[in-house]
């Protein structure tokens, strides 16, 4: 059975076209090498797809044989042993086929890997070549960029334009036939022409240097001459000082003043220049000067210097500073206020001289942090004036310059920004410091060229010469007129306090020869007392009485009749007339509210004041008004009807000649005096 089965179970040999059959396993090494080589060559000839189909068929066949063997074994019949052996042999053959296919697959895999490796090496080589080429390209691009960005020195040279080049350059340099078509040759030609021009300019520069050295030598010679001339001029100036004083031409003093004026702040400098110019051109009696410390003014504009001595002494002072108390808040505010109200060390003084040698001294200061100017006034009289109690406020520095222009009281700062500065340091109003600082009138700011518009506030206000020049002449005239009017009032008040109403000869025709009523009292009263009088309410309500005005009380008597006159004197006297309010104490109290004739008496002095101005500039207006008041009081008393119930003669006999005693339903009296006829009539 075994021999027969072995004969029947011959292994299958897989053959392919052109490939010899496999040998047995018992052969030598040479046969194995030949077989290995044959399989590698066979791989190239076989189709992998067909091998895959063979692999599938073999696997299916193996599955079938295994299933049959399983089925035969399960039957348990001994006759099936031969069939099982036969199918086992067939399975072994199929296993041999699978092993061969496995070897072929491994060979194909190895060849595929080898081919992949070779291809990868080729790709790496090509990639390396590509990187080398890219590097070369990048290097070339950098070189190209460097070449394109290269700036030659000739690009920094400003060459002449092409039109000028072809117009001025000679043909041997310009060469139009070549340079017009070739830009490179054109640039070279322009550079050659530039070089030629520079050579010419260099030669000219050398010539100029030689001439400059020659001129410098001449200048040095003239400087030596001038330096030797200065001492001679100084000696001549010293010798001419008596001549300058004799001819009233102080050139040396003026030169020193102008040297000092360089250190003035801009507003004071504008005031100094404009006042000096006006004094030289129009007003020889206006004297302008500068006062103060020049050294302190120079120190204001010096930069702070670092002191090494302070650093070296800091250790020694450390113990003292630790013992000192820290300043309180009140002390700090006081220091801040002082710094805020700090004045410039230099000031400008104006001396206004009148014909009678009376002088008004004005000192102008500049507050640096507030950017405003202030003024202080002082009066010097040629003769000693009689002291009058009621004239105390006339020449007072606080009231002398009030309302020089209408509404300019000088109590508030004209700079709107100052109020915010005051709030920071706790200053309520500037008027608390005006005794020391002076008054910041608006006309003072304008003389310094400062203007502070309220509708359009500005951050910085600069001094304007034209503004100062436009206000200088009128302001000087107003100041001189104010001084003369106040001095005239001062003299008149001295007489009024003694009961004498001074009337000049030019004004005698305004009054009758005999006036019986007399002034018995003339005193100054405060605004509060004036406001409390019952017969002055109309004047206050009309806005004719303000706290800046001067107030006086006059008492006129005749017999038992006493006439009180409350007088409001405007600071602008005599341009603005005084205003009288009357009250007659005779047979009761009579004033303008209950007596039409008292109102008519007030009208005579308040409305028809132009008749009483007298000779210009009208400084006798006040005394003429008082004299007329005495006159109309006589008319009022003499024209009163006699009371028949009273025995005896009439208290005030009629001495004035009147055409009619009364007129109209108001029974007004004739208060108008007619000269030279000497009678009284109605208006």
TrEMBL record:
<dbReference type="GO" id="GO:0003729">
    <property type="term" value="F:mRNA binding"/>
</dbReference>
<dbReference type="GO" id="GO:0000445">
    <property type="term" value="C:THO complex part of transcription export complex"/>
</dbReference>
<comment type="similarity">
    <text>Belongs to the THOC5 family.</text>
</comment>
<feature type="region of interest" description="Disordered">
    <location>
        <begin position="299"/>
        <end position="329"/>
    </location>
</feature>
<dbReference type="InterPro" id="IPR019163">
    <property type="entry name" value="THO_Thoc5"/>
</dbReference>
<keyword id="KW-0539">Nucleus</keyword>
<feature type="compositionally biased region" description="Acidic residues">
    <location>
        <begin position="306"/>
        <end position="319"/>
    </location>
</feature>
<protein>
    <submittedName>
        <fullName>THO complex subunit 5</fullName>
    </submittedName>
</protein>
<dbReference type="Pfam" id="PF09766">
    <property type="entry name" value="FmiP_Thoc5"/>
</dbReference>
<feature type="compositionally biased region" description="Basic and acidic residues">
    <location>
        <begin position="22"/>
        <end position="40"/>
    </location>
</feature>
<feature type="region of interest" description="Disordered">
    <location>
        <begin position="1"/>
        <end position="40"/>
    </location>
</feature>
<dbReference type="GO" id="GO:0006406">
    <property type="term" value="P:mRNA export from nucleus"/>
</dbReference>
